């Protein structure tokens, strides 16, 4: 992945319609027409979302002119999820330390016989 | 390139990270250790890290500058700005980790809420990714201690995260 490709993935995932489209593609390949069915929007509007997903590498589309099935590509999704998971890990470690710090701070306060405030 | 300009993704609702913790301390105290630079310096970053630079002006529009130092001497600089400071309940700030040339590796909007639960405090950190770069990933890994030991946990979380990213309404 080149620089900024994660940002492209995050931007593509930012839209609830696009996430719903991806969720629909987890189980199987689906044609554009079928994909559009559950959404209250025109086919061109759905196609626009598909272009965004395609550019982000989140889906690939078949070559057949009529029925161009869309297929999920999991790699960018995993990269985005990986980023968030790593960041969550950073925060968990940080809060561990905050927890310890608050514990020590209050223990010290009691030992000195004076509390903050 | 992402560079220093305002991010084009800023207005987009990217899926968020959420961590929460019940801390055994009153809310005012928890809030103060977040907003007082000398106290923040004592705990910011994983175990074993220090913060040779820790400057925060805890007011709306105030600047944040923290240099985190790993046990091996590597410095991880971070800059940011407070968007909202509401004592003792809420902090909103934007922050970026910087590479060795001072370029942002990623920019994240954080919303931290402090809720009293009896004498304890429920802390919630929500992180909203504005931009990131491929180089930001190894950077996150580098800022960890004993990272390899937690790979199993990471994998489990990864699968959960992949699922949650696809939730239609988040």
Written account of the structure:
- The complex is a heterodimer of chains A (117) and B (170).
- With 117 residues, chain A is mainly alpha-helical.
- In chain A, 64% of the residues lie in helices and 5% in strands.
- Chain A has five helices and two strands; from the N terminus they run H-H-H-H-E-E-H.
- In chain A, strand 1 (59-61) and strand 2 form a beta hairpin.
- In chain B, 22% of the residues lie in helices and 41% in strands.
- Chain B contains four helices and seven strands; from the N terminus they run E-H-H-E-E-E-E-E-E-H-H.
- Chain B has helices spanning 27-35, 37-43, 136-142, 151-165; strands at residues 16-23, 50-56, 63-69, 75-86, 90-98, 104-117, 120-132.
- A seven-stranded antiparallel sheet of chain B has the order 1-7-6-5-4-3-2.
- The interface between A and B is large, with 50 and 57 residues.
- The helix content of chain A is 55-70%
Shape of chain B: globular
**Derived structural class of chain B:** alpha+beta
Record the strand order, biggest sheet of chain A: 1-2
Strand content bin of chain A: 5-15%
> What is the distance, rounded to the nearest whole angstrom, between the alpha carbons of the first and last residues of chain A?
53 Å
**Count of individual helical segments of chain A:** 5
Rg of chain A (CA only): 23 Å
* β-strand number of chain A: 2
The oligomeric state is heterodimer
For the largest interface in this structure, which chains are involved and how many residues does each contribute? A-B, 50 and 57 residues
Q: For this structure, what is the CATH class of chain B?
A: Alpha Beta
Which percent range describes the beta-strand content of chain B?
35-45%
Q: How are helices and strands ordered from N to C of chain A?
A: HHHHEEH
Name the average pLDDT of chain A.
Answer: 83
* Major β-sheet annotation of chain B: 7 strands, antiparallel
| Separation, N- and C-terminal Cα atoms of chain B | 28 Å
């Amino acid at each position: 992945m080149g620089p900024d490709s994660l940002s492209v993935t995050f931007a593509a995932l930012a839209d609830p319609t696009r996430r719903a489209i991806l969720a629909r593609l987890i189980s199987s390949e689906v044609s554009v027409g079928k994909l559009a069915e559950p959404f209250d929007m025109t086919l061109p509007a759905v196609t626009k979302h598909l272009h965004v997903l395609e550019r982000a590498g989140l889906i690939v589309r078949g070559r057949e002119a009529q029925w161009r099935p869309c297929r999920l590509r999991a790699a960018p999704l995993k990269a985005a999820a990986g980023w968030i998971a790593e960041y969550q890990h950073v925060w968990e470690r940080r809060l561990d330390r905050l927890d310890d710090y608050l514990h020590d701070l209050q223990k010290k306060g009691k030992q000195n016989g004076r509390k903050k405030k | 390139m992402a560079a220093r300009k305002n991010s084009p993704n800023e207005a987009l609702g990217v899926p968020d990270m959420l961590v929460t913790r019940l801390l055994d301390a009153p809310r005012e105290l928890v809030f103060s250790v977040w907003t007082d630079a000398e106290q923040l310096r004592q705990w910011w970053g994983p175990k074993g890290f220090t913060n040779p630079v820790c400057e925060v002006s805890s007011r709306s529009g105030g600047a944040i500058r923290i240099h985190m130092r790993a046990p091996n001497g590597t410095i991880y600089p971070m800059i940011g700005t407070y968007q909202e400071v509401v004592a003792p309940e809420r902090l909103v700030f934007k922050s970026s980790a910087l590479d060795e040339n001072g370029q942002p590796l990623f920019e994240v909007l954080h919303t931290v809420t402090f809720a009293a639960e009896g004498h304890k405090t429920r802390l919630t950190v929500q992180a909203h990714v504005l931009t990131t770069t491929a180089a930001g990933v190894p950077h996150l890994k580098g800022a960890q201690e004993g990272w390899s030991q937690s790979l199993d946990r990471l994998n489990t979380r990864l699968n959960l995260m992949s699922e949650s990213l696809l939730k239609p309404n988040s």
